[in-house]
Design brief:
alpha/beta, Rossmann fold, seven-stranded mixed beta sheet, 21% strand, globular, methyltransferase, Methyltransf_25
């Protein structure tokens, strides 16, 4: 199976999964997608900076970024046409269409210039999407390639619930499988490896007793930083 075939199959799966769910997605997810808002607060987008969300879904997070950073230029990538349709409506209702560009694409292999007309971004963030992307390691690599040298990558996703009872972790993971979601056990290891190869420092935090993991891949280290 070719890469294009894999991408198309994943796009079809996401469209089927969210064709109806997208209408209630934001209402239901606020009860268990913890850490999204604190991540956005910590992004420190520069004035008139460019921000890309990979797996932008309904546009909920881009609206928060647009409100928090009022001069930011917003970009959203998603593999699901259904979700992008909802995102366009969400951003329009919030008066953000003029400074937002949305595009359909595969998170594991996309070209910013071709999709958005820009070469790189000041901030890239991925919110609870890596746990839904089969080739999630490639998505991290693509996100790092899309960063400007002084840009940073911000990630929040399901952790391994290290500080929570075993029954809670088992129940949560079983329930998430119904939605094709798999928390990534080796997320920290993979991020540290890829960040190191890119010459970028990284910080990693376990939030809410490990319910969510939060990572920031920082700007490329310079001689002055050493």
């Amino acid at each position: 199976m070719t890469t294009a075939d894999t991408s198309r199959r994943h796009a079809d799966l996401m469209d089927r999964n969210y064709r109806f769910q997208r209408h209630i997605y934001d209402f239901t997810r606020k009860y268990y997608l913890f850490g999204r808002d604190p991540m956005i607060e910590r992004m420190q987008v520069p004035d008139a900076g460019s921000v890309l969300e990979i797996g932008c879904g309904t546009g909920r997070n881009l609206v928060l970024v647009g409100r928090r950073y009022q001069s930011a230029q917003l970009f959203g990538l998603d593999i699901s046409e259904a979700m992008l349709s909802t995102a366009a409506g969400t951003l329009a209702r919030n008066g953000l269409s003029a400074r937002t560009r949305l595009s359909q694409g595969d998170a594991t292999n996309f070209e910013p210039k071709a999709l958005f007309g820009v070469g790189s971004f000041d901030r890239v963030f991925i919110s609870y999407a890596l746990s839904m992307i089969p080739d999630w390691q490639d998505a991290i690599a693509a996100a790092l390639r899309a960063l400007s040298p002084g840009g940073s990558l911000h990630i929040v996703d399901f952790g391994q619930q290290e500080g929570l009872p075993g029954w809670f972790k088992a129940g949560l993971h079983a329930w998430l499988r119904n939605y094709h979601v798999t928390p990534r056990l080796t997320l920290e290891t993979e991020l540290r490896m890829q960040a190191g190869l890119a010459g970028r420092p990284m910080t990693f935090h376990r939030w809410y007793r490990g319910y969510a993991w939060h990572a920031v891949v920082e700007p490329i280290a310079t001689m002055e930083d050493c």
